[in-house]
Amino acid sequence: MKQNFSVALLAGASVMAMASAAFAQQAPAPTEEVVVTGSRVITNGNNSPTPLTVLPSQQLLQIQPTTLIDALNALPAFTNSRGAQSTGNVTGGGNGGTASASEINLRSLGVNRTLVLFDGQRFPSSVANGLVDVDNIPEMLLQRVDVVTGGVSAVYGSDAIAGVVNFVTDTRFNGLKMEGQYGISNVGDAVTDKIGIAGGTNLFGGRGHIEGSFEYYNSNGLPRRSDRPQFQNWAMGGEYPTGIIGTPQNPYILENHVKVAASAFGGLITGLGTKASPSSVLSGQYFATNGVLSPFNPGTPNNTGGGSGTPQAYGIGGDGTYSNTTWLAPYNWKQLYGRFDYDLTDDVKAHVDVATTWKDAYQYSNMFSLTNEVMSAANGFLPQQYATALAAAGQPTFTESLVSNYISPSRDDSQATQVFVNAGLDGKFGDGYAWGGAFDYGTSTINSQLSMDPNLQHLTAALDAVKDPTTGQVVCAATLKGSDPGCAPLNIFGPTAASAAAIAYAFGTVNYNVQTTSYDFNGHLDGHPISTWAGPVNMSVSGDWRQNQLSATSTATPTQLADCTNIANNCKQGTTLLWQQAFGVLPHPVSQTVWEVAYETDIPLLKDVPLAQALNLNGAVRYTDYSTSGAYTTWKIGMDWHLSDQLTLRATDSSDIRAPTLWDLFSPTTIGSTSQEDFQANNGQGSTYATQQISQGNTNLKAETSQTVTAGLVYRPSFLPRFSFSVDAFDINVSNAITNISGFNQSIQLNCYRSGGTSPYCKLIQRADGNPLDGASLVTAWISEELNISQIQTYGADFEANYAGRAFDRPYSVRALLTYQPHLVYVQPSATTIDMGDAGTSAAYAGAVPSFKWVLTANMDITDNLNFGIVERGRNELKTNGDDTIIYLNQVAPVAYTALNLTYKFKNEMVGQSELFLNVENLFNVTPAPSAQGTIPGAGFVTGDDIIGRYFTLGFRLRR
């Protein structure tokens, strides 16, 4: 009903405007029009009813000089974004992404709910899951970045639920500019370097213009967690030995120096490998050195997870293991960009843009591990004294658990290439009419290699090692039995016992290729055919047709199964061949077609009357039809009310959508390994073990719908010139939100168990006996899939203040940006409602957000040549988790970071205008508080917090 009323109100306002046209005076057209992001009919950003923040590129680089994307992500409206200096910026694996993708996220509503534009055109997706890696957008010739923090699907289509980020090019750049910079942390790591060159000139007597740029950026990252050992062993624990962790009786407690106590880097003897007698004569010992057992110290128990007869799961200190995977993914990119435009006539202009980006990245993911692997007492590598002890006890087998620091973790390497082409015509005719048409083409190809992926058939054959009775050499038992002639036996009795030949045999490489392609034809017709008594009524009619395509191929498929012939232990006939079946295969390319028509108008209702210097009504409506998910109508209605030169009020109400991507709909079944806690095991005590995770698409998905209301004011007091203040409140409600639900999530598990098996989430837990409630039966697979199941609710306000003045006869400026967002609520049927507002760590499907984030910038020209700038950014104190049914004792302390900028400008007749700059990020070397959520050791931090520490960037910029 609300949608129909708003559309009717918009139509009625247009009819009223037409009826009054005969009595209205025609207002003169503006002498200069500019592009206003968020509207096709508003030519002055001060008159936009939708909140709009304009960020010149130079100002952004003062906030964070590494990349414009990092600077943008530092702004308070952005949370859980990823950039060159972000923690946890790994997006590879099953999504077919690069190991380090820069992605922008407004309000922490999800990257896929923020629309990215380049010069007003929808930028094509960069990775298989439909997201945009904004590293592919040219930086050198960017003029500004416009951020619209309100729903504008009626103007731009799907994905504009949280807002729009538009990267605007300086299309008339003339001259030459160059830049270069080098960055390094105070401990000598995380090195970055960047170079760029750009130029532009007029052609054909000014009728044509050409410009282009080349850019290179490299980040060494932090490839291993051990690069920063002080951070790697935080985890959540509880009192031992009580029930499930996270209850009022046994709350989670943040602890340091936590290790996995059920395993050892050299191999821990855990039992017999038979349920009848879990204890071995060798139990409680580990191979501290190759071939030599030593007593194992599990450390001080810190939580449950081990039950009766099973090893303690985690401990503080001791001889256990910990993760040493990638902290900050290393990557580099190279980019070429060119633009040519030409005035075909005085009224018709043509242009073409071409951008190509090459990006390489890598990350270390899963460390090689074995959990309770059954080993024979007759294993050829087992020292005789231990074989004798087992024989004397009548124990023909034993079990061993191991995490290897010697065998390299799995490594994801990706090489991505993206090409974007935009060609268009723009013209004008008559009295203030304009038209335009454009064609956009984008393609992204990502080639990924997952190396050191265990081949389960080869691995289990290599572990079944015996001595050849003829030669006395250790060989694979399968080889003696006439199969696997190339098998190389694997020694796991010691930290470095494995031979290079055995590692090469047991591990392989998976190659994966994903390609996305998009074609987009769009056009618009704008003008003001009528006027009211208050001025011209601006209108725009637009249309869009586009097609998105996705293909994925891989050398690993779920149909490749292990053959366990002649392998005695551990091999399971019919299981997937590779441990990490990380990459699925689409049997054929998939595509979706979208066509849209839209209408927008801006109607002046009052002008130069008491309490209304100007009052405009703005509205838009769009009809969208997706071949894959159906048809939808979106709309927006807004008001811009200038009470005076000093005070402006604005408000909008909109209905927006996010349509499911091809990856949401058709992503192939992918099978990978994961170690998660089974909270039903050991009579509710819980147990963590490795098993499969199966992810899959859902062709029944429909579009999300969202209702967004904004209201705000802009104040420019006459008594304080050069000062402005704005505040804009927002309220966003997303229905049928597409959410990835994973069966291993603690709240999902407990919901199933407490329901007695009636919860729909029980189908996400597969056990060996088919009963999801039977904790005595191991989980064989956790299921993960996308569902239209959630509601997301959030509200808050953005504040901005600007002032420019003079002190000691020197100019200075101050800018403050603050976002207040106290709640981000995820509601699911038959599940615990989660409020990620003020949460420190994101859940599996829910992004966390602080209540307060702020950025304060101040700049002053100390001399005509020297500029001093300071940036302060921070957030408030946070709770650990958004699920109130899971109890944590710890809070995440508030944090603030100070950055210092010094810029020295000089002018030389030969080189032109130049500047040298020094930036010091995290000037006081503030270390953020950890926010580990899970029990597995490895610190988590609030996204956006700085784990690198004090960081120096020295560079130059030249323009002539």
Give the averaged pLDDT, no decimals: 86
Q: Please indicate the percent range of residues in DSSP E strands (runs of 2 or more).
A: over 45%
- Major pleated sheet: 22 strands, antiparallel, barrel
Low-confidence stretches: 1-33, 87-96, 305-310
Derived from helix and strand composition plus strand pairing, the structural class reads mainly beta
Q: Class of the domain at 2-225 and 329-364 and 414-449 and 514-555 and 586-668 and 698-746 and 784-959 in CATH?
A: Mainly Beta
Distance between the termini: 59 Å
Q: Helicity level, as a percent range?
A: under 10%
> Which descriptor suits the 3D outline?
elongated
Please identify the oligomeric state. Answer: single chain
How many beta strands in the DSSP annotation?
45
Question: What would a concise description of this structure say?
Answer:
The protein is mostly beta strands.
SSE topology:
Blueprint: H1 2-19, E1 52-56, H2 57-63, H3 68-73, E2 114-118, E3 121-122, E4 142-148, H4 153-156, E5 163-169, E6 175-185, E7 192-203, E8 208-219, E9 235-237, E10 253-255, E11 258-260, E12 268-271, E13 285-289, E14 292-295, E15 300-301, E16 314-316, E17 331-343, E18 348-364, E19 369-376, H5 384-392, E20 397-403, E21 411-429, E22 433-454, H6 456-463, E23 465-467, E24 474-476, H7 477-480, H8 500-506, E25 507-532, E26 535-554, E27 590-609, E28 612-626, E29 630-642, E30 647-658, H9 662-666, E31 670-678, E32 687-696, E33 704-715, E34 723-742, H10 746-754, E35 765-767, E36 779-807, E37 810-827, E38 834-835, E39 852-861, E40 866-875, E41 878-879, E42 891-892, E43 895-908, E44 912-921, E45 951-959
Parallel strand pairs: 2-5, 32-36
Antiparallel strand pairs: 1-4, 2-3, 4-5, 6-7, 6-45, 7-8, 8-17, 9-10, 11-16, 12-20, 13-14, 15-16, 17-18, 18-21, 19-20, 21-22, 22-25, 23-24, 25-26, 26-27, 27-28, 28-29, 29-30, 30-33, 31-32, 33-34, 34-36, 35-36, 36-37, 37-38, 37-39, 39-40, 40-43, 41-42, 43-44, 44-45
